[in-house]
Amino acid sequence: KQTTTRPNPMGILSRKATCNTHGQDSSYFLGWEEYEKNPYDEATNPAGIIQMGLAENQLSFDLIEQWLAANPDPASFKRDGGSVFRDLALFQDYHGLPAFKKALVEFMSEIRGNKVTFDQNKIVLTAGATSANETLMFCLAEPGEAILLPTPYYPGFDRDLKWRTGVEIVPIQCTSANGFQITETALEQAYLDAKTRNLKVKGVLVTNPSNPLGTTLTRPELNLLVNFISDKQIHLISDEIYAGTAFSSPGYVSIMEVLKDKKLEHTELADRVHVVYSLSKDLGLPGFRVGAIYSNDDRVVSAATKMSSFGLVSSQTQYLLAALLSDKKFTRNYIAESQRRLKQRQRSLRKGLEKAGISCLKSNAGLFCWVDMRHLLEANTFEAEMKLWKKIVYEVKLNISPGSSCHCVEPGWFRVCFANMSEETLELAVERLRMFVEENYNDVIPRSRSGHEMLKGLRKKNLTKWVFRLSYSSDREPEER
Description:
Helix content is 42%, strand content 12%. A hairpin with a 7-residue loop joins strand 11 (359-360) and strand 12. The chain has 18 helices and 15 strands. The longest helix has 28 residues, at 328-355. It has a seven-stranded mixed β-sheet, with helices on both faces. A four-stranded antiparallel β-sheet has the order 11-12-15-14. It is globular and about 65 Å long. Residues 447-481 have low confidence and may be disordered.
């Protein structure tokens, strides 16, 4: 199905309103559309599509709910038995509530093992990380200038960084040869590619931990980035919204820790390093719309604060979360338990995929695995990747994200999320994929104990098999896209 731009006779609407550069036509978003038409539900629609394309952290909601039950005053907008509702309901300026900003920067430090500290006067509150990243683009670059971005990267960046700002993205091409790590050669090539396109490079943006890889940047990579922006006199944006999801070695290192170790904290270079954070992933609260920019450059803080008036965090949200994040006993327990649960869930997905003869990139963070299905492609092309993706969405009834939507340079990689569903739903999803592989690719999967023999040995409960058969008996025809 082709998406076309509607005519705009006599310029009735603006070019921004009628342009087709939002990125909504990406397979990343199209998979969501298919899921929304036919969502899986254990009771009411067991043959539906299971959503594995959504990076939500639902594994520790019970911990937050327990805290709310034990601390009813903040959610009721009370303090010391009296109501603060009227105070919160009235106008608040865009600087944010001091109590919340203090609690937030302390939480950010705790996630990083208290190896670094953050100054609440250098933080700007935004309506989520989407707003934070776009605001930084407005602060750092002019339309037509460029930001370098390692591939594969979060598909939403095409919207967040480019759509309204006019900033161009130039990819830093990373490959599976070294686990998609950033190299000096790739950085220099991206910089040269930008120059060839007559684009002025204003900075590099990285996600650490990476979405979609689920890996943390190594110290050599971080050192390389610091040296690169020093040499080129450009900015570095470190999107660290998954910082609290790092659940196993080699551990998480923030760019702020690198600056501290190099004794660069109070230098001109440090003014060109900016951190993006939010509570969407670590606390699992994307609906609360809480994001932040942290910068050592007072001019960036000032400009971003003014811009934040277009996307404020509500006073009620700030009041509630200030109380929650100020409870140090709760935050310490939450971080440790959330990471433990994420590690266990990631292990479950990896083991299930291994039994289907499918491997993943070794990862230690995030809410997803970067899954290698190159051996299931009919050819080493992105057309073959899309053909396989359509089968998985329409036949297997799983919405996963193809690597091409993340601008991966190698066909056959997919992002598969594991933290937005129950353990039982994850088991069903893996069973559906296992049976699909066994029935259609028996000649290409490994014939080892970890592959083919384990495929034969795995059998789920009769109910699971029955549900899976239902999903294949659906008379719903796939659309052409």
